[in-house]
Design a protein that fits this description.
Order of helices and strands: HEEEEEHHEEHHE
Structural class: alpha+beta
Number of strands: 8
Strand content: 25-35%
Radius of gyration: 18 Å
Number of helices: 5
Distance between the termini: 28 Å
Largest sheet: 8 strands, antiparallel
Number of domains: 1
Length: 209
């Protein structure tokens, strides 16, 4: 697929996600919607997303994606990638809130790694018992999503969490989402990561000098 066509598809996918999230918010009672408080500033990312490739001898410590409370988006492609460099674009407050709501709705903010890990283990054991299948991914990649907010509430009646900070980390997320499609926690997290990846490929990004 040509790069231009891929960018168009990613833009359409991201735009559709925003429209769907805003529509869902409009159709959900305010008391059941998550509440986010953060400063409209550029000093601390509200969202960070990166892929940690274990096979690389020298890993780039800069996150692939950073989204600030001001709506500023920074994307960093490491030197070994074809699009190496730094890029920026701007999200509106509505778009940023939609992005945060998506992460909440997909369970990323409240992800229970221990419980989902146990579920994955059980699904793996069930599959092995049924098929004798042994599966291994040699080139491991961790999907990492960090979220930092001044305050977060899952719903209006939920406890307020001041200084909210969470990290989602899952090894070989895309592969697990394909293999364990029965796991809602894994598949929804993979969908959230795919949305953030689409933002990294947004055609509105401008390369910095």
């Amino acid at each position: 697929m040509k790069t231009a066509n891929l960018h168009i598809l990613l833009f359409v996918a991201f735009s559709a996600f925003l429209a769907a999230t805003v529509h869902a918010a409009n159709g959900t009672p305010a008391s059941l919607q998550p509440i986010f408080h953060f400063a409209a500033a550029d000093d601390m990312p509200v969202i960070e997303y990166t892929l940690d490739h274990h096979m690389l001898a020298q890993r780039d410590p800069t996150p692939l994606l950073r989204v600030y409370g001001s709506g500023r988006v920074q994307v960093h492609f490491p030197v070994y990638m074809k699009k190496a460099g730094d890029y920026e674009m701007q999200l509106s407050r509505t778009e940023l809130n939609a992005l945060l709501r998506m992460l909440a709705d997909k369970g990323v903010m409240d992800f229970d790694a221990a419980a989902i890990g146990q579920e994955r283990k059980q699904l793996e054991m069930t599959r092995k018992a049924a098929t004798g299948e042994l599966f291994n991914v040699s080139d491991a990649t961790d999907t990492v999503i960090n979220i930092k907010l001044n305050q977060y509430q899952r719903t209006a009646s939920s406890p307020r969490i001041n200084g909210f900070s969470s990290q989602f980390r899952w090894r070989n997320l895309t592969s697990d989402a394909r293999r364990f499609s029965d796991s809602t926690g894994i598949t929804q997290a993979a969908n959230a990561a795919a949305t953030l990846q689409a933002l990294c490929e947004h055609p509105g990004l401008q390369k910095l000098p």
